[in-house]
Amino acid sequence: MSTPAAVLAARELLCDLTPLKTDCGRLCAGACCKGDDATGMLLFPGEDALYEDCAFGRVLPAEFSLGGEEAKLFVCSGTCKRENRPLACRLFPLFLKFKEDGTTKLRLDARARAVCPLCDYGIRALDSEFKQAARKAYDLLLEDARCAAYLRELDEAFTL
Ligand code: SF4
Ligand code: SF4
């Protein structure tokens, strides 16, 4: 299936932005890029089509579904060009939380706490331009039924 326009637009919004204005990877030696063969980043719906012939990683089935589709993981070699990052890497360490009234809120991803030193300082410490772009990206994704279903189930599945 092709990559939804909302995923492409969200990726573009976050193409040049990172959690801090400075290179936060220098704080942690790029901890969030140091997975192994068993770990990977979840791809958004249809994003796997962008990595079919990828030189720096591969797509694997996650063996569970999200939003009614088989979820896919991207397992990388640990280095990539910024413009090639999966959307989950661009949004990290942010997460979209659904509230009981149906509205949503940006939060730090609870799964990031074990990895990312920025989490010790709270969401306020992240660059406001990055957070605004992430909010816009999530808003675009929520307008796409496939991505909205994915995000809602991701929240349900991974809320600790
Ligand atoms: S783990 Fe956090 S501080 Fe380190 S590179 Fe990733 S986002 Fe930046
Ligand atoms: S795909 Fe790129 S940004 Fe994402 S974890 Fe791998 S090296 Fe890091």
Q: What are the defining features of this structure?
A:
single chain; 160 residues; alpha+beta; two-stranded antiparallel ribbon; 5 helices; 5 strands; 29% helix; binds iron/sulfur cluster
Fold and architecture overview:
It is globular and about 35 Å long. α1 runs antiparallel to α4 (128-142). The chain has one domain. The longest helix has 15 residues, at 128-142. It has 160 residues and is α+β, with helices and mostly antiparallel strands. The chain has helices at 5-13, 25-28, 87-91, 128-142, 145-158, and strands at 41-42, 57-66, 69-76, 94-98, 104-108. It is built from 5 helices and 5 strands, in the order ααβββαββαα. The chain starts with a helix and ends with a helix. It binds iron/sulfur cluster (2 copies). One iron/sulfur cluster (SF4) binds at residues 19, 24-25, 27-28, 30-32, 92-93, 115-118.
Fraction in beta strands? 15-25%
The count of β-strands is 5
Oligomer, anyone? single chain
Number of domains: 1
The biggest beta sheet reads:
3 strands, antiparallel
Brief digest:
By secondary structure, the protein is α+β, with helices and mostly antiparallel strands. It has five helices and five strands; from the N terminus they run ααβββαββαα. Strands 1-3-2 form a three-stranded antiparallel beta sheet.
Topology of this protein?
Layout: H1 5-13, H2 25-28, E1 41-42, E2 57-66, E3 69-76, H3 87-91, E4 94-98, E5 104-108, H4 128-142, H5 145-158
Antiparallel strand pairs: 1-3, 2-3, 4-5
Helix pairs in contact: 1-4
The structure holds iron/sulfur cluster (2 copies).
One iron/sulfur cluster binds at residues 19, 24-25, 27-28, 30-32, 92-93, 115-118.
